[in-house]
Structure formats: structure tokens, C-alpha cells
Amino acid sequence: VDKEQQLHDALMLGDPITELTIQMEVNFFQLNSAEYFIPVTMKIPGSELALARRHGAEHTVIEFIGEVKDEYNVTVANVRDTVDIKLGTETAERLARQPIQYDTAFTLLPGTYTIKVLARDDETGRIGTYMRTFVVPNLNKEQKRIPISSVVLSGQRMDVKDAVFNASKDKTPTVNPLVQEGQRLEPSVTRVFSKRRDLFVYLQAYERSYEKPQPLVAFVTFYRGQAKAFETAPIEVADAMDNKLHTMPLRFSLSLGKLQPGEYNCQVSVVDPAGQKAAFWSAPVRVVP
């Protein structure tokens, strides 16, 4: 049996393989009246690749294979890629501090999907698998609230050219909203943020129901239990993209320096004063020194 078949068989196993730890974040942004752009970020702790370095290897190749299935168990998308990582001294030091990140993307219709991914370190033969279910909502049916994309929380922006590895081909489509002016917003998979670094927040709102987009007001709030610990000043956004959705990008850059280390609930609020609609998103985060 060739290696390709072995990897596919391992991917299909019911129980996860955890020799390599994989963490994942899946986001969605509406492209048009039917389709959604789905960026997927996968991270493997760089320290787990140090094993190959200790064996004297100068580089290692991480193979990624995966598939996306719809609720009827039909495969609607596939992933197959290799990532070549140099294991020089400088890179090894970076790997000890930060994870290897792999990004891919799909274009999907609204629905419920399951993504399953396998990663294999060619140098050591170690394998990790990961599976999760995610929902792409049909924002065209949203009547009561402002339709918004998922919200991306990030602790860093990185120059697209400044990567630890080079994928076998450029996987970043031109429509990727997380890439702007040569900088890529790195979604935080763990939602752990240092109070010494800025937090970046990005989402999109869609105002297709208006002939002319109306200004929106947005702000970010941190709650500790029921108590409000911190809130940004509201920002007004009036500029929309020139498309039928009237896509309005909402960006925040905020300092966490005033927050004590600990667990918080981060809430993003978007308000349409003219239409008296709103949208709210929240997720638990952890702030560390």
C-alpha cells in the first residue's frame, strides 16, 4: 500500500491520532448572494517539530491532507499540500516560541459541514488528525439583526512574505479579507492574548437591504463575570465596498494593557442607528502578562 493510501486511511479513522497536536479556526465571509469565503487556519506547536531538529535534520516537510463534507456526507472540498520548513538555528528558536501555521480556504454555500484534516511530519513520521463541525449561515435570511461575518481576533499581523515556510503553491486567494496591504491578520486559534501586545479585531457587516449604505457604529467590550472591565470608544463606519452586499469592513486595534491577567468574555457590538438593528458576537478569551 503506498503512502498516499496509508495517509488517507489514517484520515478516515474514527478516533483522532494525536502524535502531532492540531488546533484549528474556521471563519466565514460572504462573497455574493450565494457563496461564502471560508478561511481555515491550522496550527501545530513548533516545539513538536523540534524532535526532527534534534535528530539533525536541516528541514522537515509537513504534509496536510483533508476534506470537507456536507451534512449528507458528500465531500465538497479537498486539501492536499506540503509545507517545507527549514530547521536552521534561527528558525528553530522561532519554532520554540510560536506554532507552525498553515492557511487554506474554500468557497462554500450556506450549510453545516465537517472538516477533517491530517498532518504528517515526514522527518519523524508523526501524525495528527483533527475533526470539527462548522456552520456557514445563510445571511440572506437575517431580518432582525445586522448580518455580520464571523469575528477574527488576532494578536499579530504578519508580512505575507515573512513566513517560516513556503507552501508548495500560493494558497492565499486575492479575495482573502484577512490579507490587506501585504499584511495578513493571523487568527488566534487559542484566543490567548498578551496584555503587552495590541489586539486586532476584524469583521464585516452587510447592508444589501439599503440602496445606499447607512453608517454603522461598533465597539468592543470585555466582561469579567457580569462586570464590564473595559470598553473601546465607539467607531463609526460609513464606507462600504462597491458590491451588491454593501460590505462594510470593521477593524479595531486596541491595547489590553489596562486589563488584569485572567479570563474574560469579549463582545463585539454593531449598531445601525438608522434601522434600529444591531448584531452581537462574543467569545471567551484569556489575557496573560
How would you summarize the topology of this molecule?
Blueprint: H1 3-12, E1 23-26, E2 29-30, E3 36-44, H2 50-54, E4 59-70, E5 75-86, H3 89-97, E6 100-108, E7 111-121, E8 127-136, E9 152-159, E10 165-167, E11 179-180, E12 183-187, E13 192-194, E14 198-206, E15 216-224, E16 227-231, E17 235-237, E18 247-255, E19 262-272, E20 277-288
Parallel strand pairs: 13-20
Antiparallel strand pairs: 1-3, 2-3, 3-6, 4-5, 4-7, 5-10, 7-8, 9-12, 9-14, 11-12, 14-18, 15-16, 15-17, 15-19, 19-20
What can you tell me about this protein's structure?
It is a single chain. The chain is mostly beta strands. 8% of the residues lie in helices and 51% in strands. It has helices at 3-12, 50-54, 89-97; strands at 23-26, 29-30, 36-44, 59-70, 75-86, 100-108, 111-121, 127-136, 152-159, 165-167, 179-180, 183-187, 192-194, 198-206, 216-224, 227-231, 235-237, 247-255, 262-272, 277-288. Strands 13, 15, 16, 17, 19 and 20 form a 6-stranded mixed sheet that branches. The longest helix is centred in the N-terminal third of the chain and has 10 residues, at 3-12. The model is unreliable at 164-172 (pLDDT under 50).
State the end-to-end CA separation.
50 Å
Work out the helix count. Answer: 3
Q: What summary fits the major beta sheet? A: 6 strands, mixed
pLDDT < 50 stretches: 164-172
Average pLDDT confidence is: 86
Radius of gyration: 20 Å
| Shape call | globular
Query: Could you state the order of secondary-structure elements as H and E?
Result: HEEEHEEHEEEEEEEEEEEEEEE
Alpha-beta content class: mainly beta
What percentage of the residues does DSSP assign to strands (E)? over 45%
Number of strand elements:
20
Helical proportion, percent range: under 10%
